[in-house]
Specification:
This protein is mainly beta. The protein has 4 helices and 15 strands. The radius of gyration is 21 Å and the shape is globular. The two termini are 30 Å apart.
């Protein structure tokens, strides 16, 4: 399997375990907050205690594994004209993110993410608990599960890089909710429900349901993953999307299938999505979108990929206003070069690895 943010080939950890007494005090203060939120029983430890008791905060900190993730994405676009989303021949810094992931004793863990390029900058936090040797998981927070396979890391992880553009238009943002996962052999099932749409949260009766089923197999030296997903819910004049956002008012859903094939240093990923939205200006609008990505991983820390993607409006109840023309052009007439520079930092604030990824996107 190719390099991911948190997984190595053969399930080896990205870094070696470090002595338990080297976590900085600032780092401990943050972790104590999260541990306190997800604790099921009383803790007896206090800051500065020399010996840790079983079940204490200090014992949780000493048994945990922590990783920082910092990333900057550079995008360069070449388009034949200025359109709704991208200006002609534009260069910009697209994303600069900081992520933190920690695991504790007894299967507890958390993830959080800060995006300096977004407003608001705090993007989400998840607190989770695994059961039965990681065959089941319960997760509470506001980072929804990934619907597709065109990303790094794997579908089992929450995304710190971004899903494909077609999916991003329809699947909303960091809504607050709860989801679970169960695994049996090569099969995995995710189910969850979230409150709020787009980047808004806590919208009372407005809920979004999510689900994904995935099967993994290995045949003829090829690692194969095939998944199907669905997201459906209601919105009350909520804007979703990337740049020029859709103003959604009513029901919306997305159904898709995806696959990923990996062999030695090569991988092939593809996805197809059918979405339906009720826009303020146009009801019952249907879209189809998809992508195909071919990638090569010469080493554990370098990935190069070329992606073709497309999005088309297939039907709508009225043609009085084409609210999607600019978005279609933005996807179909762009040649983009993306460079991801990623640095990994351990709990002692020491950089251990860096990672360079080049992604060339062709849309025609």
């Amino acid at each position: 399997m190719i390099s991911t943010l948190y997984n190595r080939p053969n399930n080896k950890p990205r870094r070696k375990n470090r002595p338990s007494d080297k976590h900085p005090y600032k780092f401990r203060a943050v972790l104590i907050l999260f541990v306190g939120l997800m604790s099921l029983g009383p803790f007896s430890a206090v800051h500065g205690q020399e010996t840790s008791q079983p079940g204490s905060i200090q014992s949780y900190l000493e048994s945990g594994e922590f990783e920082w993730l910092a990333m900057i994405q550079f995008h360069a676009y070449a388009t034949p004209y200025e359109n709704a989303t991208f200006a002609s021949n534009q260069f910009r810094v697209a994303q600069s993110r900081l992520g933190l992931k920690g695991t504790f004793a007894d299967g507890y863990g958390f993830q959080l993410q800060y995006n300096a390029s977004a407003t608001p900058g705090f993007q989400g936090i998840n607190i989770y608990k695994t059961f039965w040797q990681n065959k089941a998981e319960l997760r509470v927070g506001n980072m929804k599960m990934l619907p597709n396979l065109d990303f790094f890391p794997t579908p089992d992880e929450d995304d710190f890089i971004g899903r494909n553009i077609g999916s991003n238009y329809f699947l909303g943002g960091q809504d607050i909710g709860i989801r679970g996962r169960v695994s049996h052999g090569p099969m995995k099932l995710w189910l969850g429900i979230y409150n709020g749409e787009g980047r808004s949260t806590n919208q009372d009766e407005k809920f979004l349901g999510v689900g994904r089923f995935q099967v993994e197999a290995k045949r003829w030296g090829v690692d194969m993953k095939v998944g199907t997903f669905v997201q459906a819910g209601y919105s009350d004049q909520v804007r979703i999307g990337l740049k020029r956002m859709f103003l959604v008012d009513g029901y919306r859903q997305s159904i898709g299938v995806d696959t990923r094939l990996e062999s030695k240093k090569w991988f092939l990923a593809a996805e197809g999505i059918r979405s339906q939205l009720d826009l303020v200006v146009d009801k019952e609008v249907e879209f189809t979108s998809g992508f195909v990505t071919l990638g090569y991983t010469p080493s554990d820390i370098n990935t190069f990929a070329v992606r073709w993607q497309r999005m088309d409006r297939t039907s709508s109840a009225t043609l009085k206003q084409d609210a999607t023309l600019g978005y279609k052009r933005a996807l179909n007439d762009v040649i983009a070069v993306q460079v991801n520079v990623i640095g990994y930092m351990d709990a002692d604030y020491q950089f251990e690895e860096s990672e360079l990824r080049l992604n060339i996107q062709l849309a025609f």
